[in-house]
Amino acid sequence: MEKEKIHVTKQGFSKLEAELEQLTTVQRPAVAEKIKRAREVGGTENNAEYDDAKNEQAFIEGRILMLEKIIRNATIIESPTSHDIVEIGDTILIQNQDGKIDLFTIVGSAEANPVEGKISYVSPVGQALLGKKRGEKVNVSTPAGLLKLQILEIN
Question: Burial, 142: exposed, middle or buried (Cβ in 10 Å; 0-12, 13-18, 19+)?
Fold first, then answer.
């Protein structure tokens, strides 16, 4: 079975490793202690504190499994050597049809965070920008409608 490639930047990979470390060395033991205390105080039946701690534990364990999979299958995106065309890892300055200017970094899905200006290369906008040159205009079909973007800079 071929492993699923998960593209991440070096910085994103470091953040994922740090989060995994935090979950396994700090949060996992802390929630285990919460469960132990809740069980000692009120047993496991009809104990909201115990139920909350068990739910928190399930979330933490799920996130640990997901992070381990991402790290195991990660392909590190090397910083682009040329800024002639848009590649994964580039930071792009774009202008939309309303004149609004935005700055996006093209990253892998595992570290995408549109609020921080990090968009996945598999997103509609990311796909439309990949391979394009400075000055080029692209049309992107999104659930909100058609976006018309112009690439101002590639860094």
Answer: exposed
Within 8 A by CB and 6+ apart from 120, the residues are 106, 107, 108, 109, 112, 126
The CATH classification of domain 6-76, taken from the options 3.10.129.10, 1.10.287.180, 1.20.120.450, 2.60.120.10? 1.10.287.180
CATH number of 80-154: 3.10.50.30
Which region holds residue 72: left if phi is over 0, alpha if psi is between -120 and 50, else beta?
Answer: alpha
Residue 107 has pLDDT above 90, yes or no: yes
pLDDT tens digit sequence for 127-137: 999 999 999 99
Q: Are 126 and 7 in contact (CB under 8 A)?
A: no
Residue 126 has pLDDT above 50, yes or no: yes
| Counts for the chain of helices (H) and strands (E), in that order | 4, 7
What pTM did the predictor assign?
Answer: 0.78
> Using CA atoms, how far apart are residues 106 and 113, in angstroms rounded to an integer?
10
Helix (H), strand (E) at residue 22: helix 10-22
- Rounded to the nearest 10 degrees, how much is the dihedral formed by the CA atoms of 13, 14, 15, 19? 100
